[in-house]
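Hi team,

As requested, here is the filled-out complex form for the adenosine-5'-diphosphate run. I kept the field names the same as last time so the parser does not choke. Let me know if anything looks off before we queue the next batch.

— J.
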Amino acid sequence: MNILVINCGSSSLKYQLINSDTEAVLAKGLCERIGIDGSLLTHTPAGKDKVKIETPMPNHTTAIQLVINALTDAGHGVIKSLDEIGAVGHRVVHGGEKFASSVVINDEVMKAIEECNDLAPLHNPANLIGINSCKEIMPNVPMVAVFDTAFHQTMPEKAYLYGLPYEYYEKYKVRRYGFHGTSHDYVSARAAEILGKKREDMKIIVCHLGNGASISAVDHGKCVDTSMGLTPLEGLIMGTRSGDIDPAICDFICQKEGLTPAEMNNVLNKKSGVYGMTGISSDFRDIEAAEAEGNHRAKAALDAFHYRVAKYIGSYVAAMNGVDAIAFTAGVGENNKVGRAEISKYLGYLGTEIDDEKNNVRGEDRVISKDGCKVAMLCVPTNEELAIARQTLELVK
Ligand code: ADP
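And here is what came back:
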């Protein structure tokens, strides 16, 4: 069966068409600037040249129709007609406490996702628009929602409750949810597989280090803690997000700089992290280049980033009373061997040490710690689209 995986943002839409039998990606692409001037569809069919189509996309329904046209095009298409799409898997950011696993989408599910809009006001409405647009164009194709938060729903109360008045949890559901769940689930399962063990027998820490970054503790197959919270702002220092700070800083800076809470929130999400710390870029490659040229702030930001990751690893070793494997994934985790080596320098007490030769990889599944280490370190490229396709197949077959 061919499964169309859709990741819909407010002005963008990423897609992959995956054959579930072979797990091959038949085509992938991206619609940008939906609802804005200069809309662009970049379509990459497997084994053929990439095509760029610049055409107006006033809304997501037009964008999805253009994606279907591209997929079925006589030249750069990969299927003959819409009938060859057996199911659609949608990435949905926030499932609140309602969804602890993926579900087949029906009216009731749509309503429940809408009820989580409050918790992810930038993402969930866009995800719903994507689902509605697909339903319009493919009314008879089954669709599945795969939630970023679902894998983390196994966290115990002690891990998800904040030290806040309990009524905020009762009234507004303010608690830790965590994100990147599809990736943490996929990577922890893959790490166990690479080590030839069962995930149910292991304690695994997954470091998803991309532009957005989070860590999770996966104890015997279940997530018991994760670094992102009510929103993706908490935890690690990220590309543009601050991660953990003293909450009192918000009021202090608002007063000093005359900012509103919404403006402060924007600073924390878009102008902080390694971008704000360096004033250079949110891209770790640019910061590494600046560090190599002797830029102090670049070095300080990278040091702080690695230190924060190492501290979280330590806290999750405590949470699980041990660890068997630590897996690095996402843009930085998969590609940045220097970052992995720097983080590993803090982990000698666990009985693990990086193997420089094995660590000299990019985007490849492999163990990167020395043979015989008590705790294995691994590089495991994440594949959220494949994970979404697998979960979609599971529910519609
Ligand atoms: P997201 O999905 O959160 O946008 P990704 O997982 O795609 O992020 O990661 C993107 C980040 O990965 C970039 O900001 C870049 O800093 C980092 N990255 C990619 N390749 C490399 C590399 N070779 N060395 C260092 N960092 C890299």
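Two things worth flagging: The pocket of adenosine-5'-diphosphate is lined by residues 210-212, 239, 282-285, 330-332, 335-336 (CB under 6 Å). Residues 2-147 form a domain with the Nucleotidyltransferase; domain 5 fold (CATH 3.30.420.40).

Thanks,
J.
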